[in-house]
Structures are given as C-alpha cells and as structure tokens.
Automatic annotation (TrEMBL), chain A:
This is 1,2-phenylacetyl-CoA epoxidase subunit A. It comes from the Bacteria. Pfam families: PaaA_PaaC. GO terms for molecular function: phenylacetyl-CoA 1,2-epoxidase activity. InterPro entries: Aromatic_CoA_ox/epox, Ferritin-like, Ferritin-like_SF, PaaA, PaaA_PaaC. GO terms for biological process: phenylacetate catabolic process. One of its GO terms (cellular component) is cytosol.
From TrEMBL, chain B:
PANTHER family: 1,2-PHENYLACETYL-COA EPOXIDASE, SUBUNIT C, PHENYLACETIC ACID DEGRADATION PROTEIN PAA. The gene is paaI. This is Phenylacetate-CoA oxygenase subunit PaaI. Gene3D superfamilies: 1.20.1260.10. Pfam families: PaaA_PaaC.
Length: 314, 252
C-alpha cells in the first residue's frame, strides 16, 4: 500500500516536473488538493470581500463615469469570485462549504481588505496599488500547475490590468487637481502603500508554505521576488504623477538594478491577520449578515425549482 | 412654455428616472442574497447609469446653457428633480426591489417601444438602445417575482406586501402634464395614459402566475412632475452630490 502511494506520488511529481497541467480527474496527492483548496478559496473570498471597501464609495462616486467604472470594477471582482469558486469546486468542495469556512474563520481572505476605504482617493489607491499587487501575483499564477486555477487566472488577469489603469487614472487626475485633491491622494498613498507590500506575505525566510507549493509548481515565484517586481514597477508610476512613496529608506540599488525598501511592519501584519485590523469584524459581520438575510430568497428559489421539477415529472 | 423648455424638462425627467433608480439598485452592490444576483442587479444599475448619461447630456444640449450631464446630476437640488417617486423609495427587501423593478420595467417596455418612434431623432435613438436593456430587466424582475411569489410561504408574503406597498406609486408613471401635451403635438413625446391598459394587463398576468393578489384601486401618490418628492430623495442626492458640493472647484 505504502509503496503504491509512493509510486503515485513519484508519477505525479514527474508529471509536474515535465510541465504538464493537473486536471480535476487526475489523481493527485491529498496535500496538493488541500493546498489548492486553501489557496483558491482564499483567493475567491478575497475577490468577494474586496467588494466591500469599494462598495463603500458607490453611492458617492463623484461623476457618472466614475460611478460606472467603479460599479463595473466591483462587478468584475464578483465575477472573479465566481470563477474561482467554480474552479475550487472541481476539487470536490462546494461553494456553500467554502462560505461556511469563511464564516467560521477557517478560511481566510486577503488581509488588505481589512483596511478602510476612507476617501475617494482610496478608490484610486485600491485600483492602482491593490489590484496592481494582485496582478503581479496572478500573472505568476497563470502558469500554476492546476489547470482550472491557471485558466481562471488567465481570464482574471485581463480584467485586473484594466482595474489597475483605472485606479491610476483616478490618482493622476487628483494629483493634477486642487490642493485638497492632492492631499487626499497623498494621504491614500500613505495609508495603502505598506499594506500593499504586505499582500505578498512574509519574507521568504519566514514563509511557512514555501516548500511543497514550489515543488508542485502551485507557486512559481517567491513572496520577495513578487514584492520586488511590484515595487519596481510602482515607484516610477508614483513619481510620474508626483506622489511620494512613504518610505524614507526607499532607494535605487544600482548594483542589483532594483529598489531597496525599508522595513515592513510585520507586527502590524500579524495583528491584522490575527483579527485586530481596522475592519476585520466589520467585513465578516457584513458578509454573514447579508448571507443570512438572503437565506429566504435562496430557499424560495429552491422551493420554486423543486415545484417546477415536480410538475414536469407528474 | 416653449417647445425647447418642454423638451429639456422631458429629457430631464427620463434621465432622472434612470439616475435615481440606478442609485437605488447600486446600493445592492455587495448586499445581494447571492453573488450571481449581486452581479445581475449591478448590471441593471449600469444600464440605467448609461441611460441617465445619455438623457441628461441631451437635456444639457437642448437647454443650451453648456451644462454637462454631470452638472445636471450633481449640482441640482431636489426640487429640480423630476423622477417618479417610485424610483427613490428605499430598497426594502429583495422582494420589494424586484416588485418595483417589475412595475417600472413593464412600464418602460411599453414606453420605450413608443418613444422609439419619436420624431426627435436623439430620443428615438436612446429609446431603441434602452428598449433592448429594458427587455432584459423586465425578464429578470418577472422571473424573480414569479419565483418568489410561488416559492415559499414567506417569500409569497413578502412579495404580496411589496405589491401592496408599491401600488400607490404606480399611478404616477402614467401622469401627463403640459410638457407632455406640448411635445405630443409634434410627435416627440409618448402618450403615457395610453400605456396604462397594456401595463395593467401584463402586470395582472404576471402577478397571477406568482399567486399574488392585485391590490384594490386606491389613492395614487403624485408630485414628481412638480418636483415634489418623498423625504428620501434628499438623502440620495446628499450622498451622491457630496464630493461635488464639498469641493466645487475640483474635477474628478
Ligand atoms: Fe482583486
Ligand atoms: Fe479580481
Ligand atoms: Fe481587480
């Protein structure tokens, strides 16, 4: 038995080694499945919980065009949540179960959405920095080893780059505007920069999941590699529109051809992950209460379709 | 009133209806009973913003005071808004929102079918595009009202309650005033009164499928043609107009 397991694992790993995608019907080690369910559901939940901070500005968007872009963006994120839930379902776990895990705290979502969206500039900062950071991660995941996940990422990445541009456009417009607008934009930058860097997770030296995820090609680049990529592309964009990066230690490293950055506040990171961020409770309570309030609608829809099914059969 | 003034007011009214209903629908964003429905309601809100943009832009052009659609949406007080009261009522529960959507989209189905034939080319073009969207809104609302009406006891009760509460706001949809009369002479405006029979028939049919009783005839609320609204509109506008009012020199 054990030997059969070993052969199975070896075959699986050879397949991965040769660059084949793993598909839902393929045999896969329990650890691989578990890792994917955890990562994909966390990703799906992030898309959905991320709708809340942006949703906070829908009724206050300052122009018809701004409102249209914001609503369409949030709609995209919900759509990403849907693809990812479906992709996770191919591993034999239902959306209901995943939502249940979210509500009990067993499943996580991206820490970044535990920060509040306080001004209109935050909508710019979220699109530009948060979606910008997400893209770096998701581009890398387009080549992840699990087929349905990688295909979902390809679809999602196309839309994310729109979001990033639209967010940047908001920031650029505000930086070209009145003194109040500039101050708002810089304030948003100051508040979102560090949490955006934290989106990539702990330094490689402290990252607990790195081993298997790499061997199985779920993860293709390390946290620090991805973070560096994000910093390097973003610093210039900030400079172009006159925003200051709130890091006095940030400077170009001529030797390494990339930016060195200051110390990330990992204490804040673990505090927010641990549940004591500014919005953790609000986000979760909102999701739970909306879910519970909608129960009668879902029950009615089920009752109705059961009746339809029944009368079809009679 | 000149024809130009009438046309301005008419486009404004149609734009305001779309704008205010889109404001209400967009409040469902991240609040819907499940994810697919969140996206569906947002879709309708997006269609309505597009329609509001087109109508208000046209109103600005007709008026000739170089006001943009944003000026009209974000710098007008509630007494100068002309949307029907039903659009501004708070969302209530999901049944309430869907019943409103059914009442409104059924009306719009008939209305935009006619407005397509307007002698005013711009209104006719906007109407043709709108009609395609409204057909989908109507289908969506109809499916939900039937599903909920014929779902569980609770959902049936909620739909019936929504129908009872919203009924007195439906009369206003068919109201006509001097603006309509003036524009109808040249075939620009739709005779809304003529749409009433078709509307009643279609709504009655759908509510019957949903096991919902039609309310008895009663008093119909009115006022929006004169810019007299419910208390709710002011709150929609104060949120919507907040940034434009707080930073009047800024562009966004
Ligand atoms: Fe995202
Ligand atoms: Fe997304
Ligand atoms: Fe996005």
């Amino acid at each position: 038995m054990e030997q059969a397991q070993d052969t199975l694992l070896r075959e699986f790993e050879e397949k991965i080694e040769c660059g084949f995608a793993i598909e839902p019907k393929d045999r896969m080690p329990a650890g691989y499945r578990k890792h994917l369910v955890r990562q994909m559901s966390q990703h799906a939940h992030s898309e959905v919980i991320g709708m809340q901070p942006e949703g906070n500005w829908v009724t206050r968007a300052p122009s018809l065009r701004a409102k249209q872009i914001l609503l369409a963006k949030i709609q995209d994120e919900g759509g990403h949540g849907l693809y990812l839930y479906s992709a996770a379902e191919t591993l034999g776990v239902s959306r209901d179960e995943l939502i249940e895990q979210l509500h009990t705290g067993k499943a996580k979502y991206s820490n970044i959405f535990n920060y509040p969206a306080l001004s209109w500039a935050d909508i710019g900062a979220i699109g530009w920095l948060v979606d910008g950071a997400a893209i770096v991660n998701q581009v890398s995941l387009q080549r992840t080893s699990y087929g349905p996940y990688s295909r979902a990422m390809v679809r999602i990445c196309k839309e994310e780059s729109f979001h990033q541009r639209q967010g940047y456009e908001i920031m650029a417009k505000m930086m070209a505007g009145t003194a109040d607008q500039k101050a708002m934009a810089q304030d948003a930058m100051n508040r979102w920069w560090w949490p955006s860097l934290m989106m990539f997770g702990p330094h490689d030296s402290d990252s607990p999941h790195t081993g298997d995820a790499f061997k199985w090609k779920i993860k293709r680049h390390s946290n620090d590699e991805l973070r560096q990529k994000f910093i390097d592309k973003t610093v210039q964009q900030a400079e172009v529109i006159g925003l200051t990066i709130p890091d006095k230690d940030l400077k170009w490293n001529e030797e390494k051809k990339c930016y060195d950055h200051g110390e990330i506040n990992w204490e804040e990171f673990s505090r927010v992950i641990g549940g004591d961020g500014p919005c953790n409770k609000q986000r979760m309570e909102h999701h739970i209460s909306v879910h519970n309030e909608g129960a009668w609608v879902r029950e009615a829809a089920e009752a109705y379709s059961a009746k339809q099914q029944y009368s079809k059969n009679v | 009133m000149t024809e130009q003034q009438a046309l301005y007011k008419y486009s404004l009214r149609l734009g305001d209806n779309a704008l205010i209903l889109s404001a209400r629908l967009s409040e469902w964003c991240s609040n819907a009973p499940f994810l697919e429905e969140d996206l569906a309601v947002t879709n309708m809100a997006l269609d309505l913003i597009g329609r509001a943009q087109a109508m208000l832009k046209y109103a600005g052009e007709v008026d000739g005071n170089s006001k943009t659609e944003d000026d009209l949406a974000y710098r007008r007080g509630e007494r100068d808004y002309y949307n029907n009261l039903i659009m501004e009522l708070p969302n209530g529960d999901f049944a309430y929102t869907m019943v409103r959507q059914l009442f409104v989209s059924t009306f719009e189905l008939f209305f935009y079918e006619e407005l397509q034939k307007s002698t005013d080319a711009t209104l006719a073009a906007i109407a043709a595009k709108t009609l395609k969207e409204v057909k989908y809104h109507h289908l969506h609302a109809k499916d939900w009202v039937i599903r909920l009406g014929d779902g569980t006891e609770e959902s049936n009760r909620r739909v019936q309650q929504a129908v009872n509460q919203l009924w007195m706001y439906t009369g206003e949809l068919f109201e006509m005033d001097g603006t309509d009369a003036l524009l109808m002479k040249d075939g620009i405006a739709v005779n809304a009164e003529h749409l009433k029979m078709g509307w009643i028939q279609m709504v009655t049919q759908i509510l019957a499928l949903a096991n919902i009783e039609l309310p008895a005839d009663g008093y119909m609320q009115s006022g929006s043609r004169m810019g007299i609204h419910t208390e709710h509109l002011g709150h929609i506008l104060s949120e919507m107009q907040y940034l434009q009012r707080a930073y009047p020199d800024a562009t966004w």
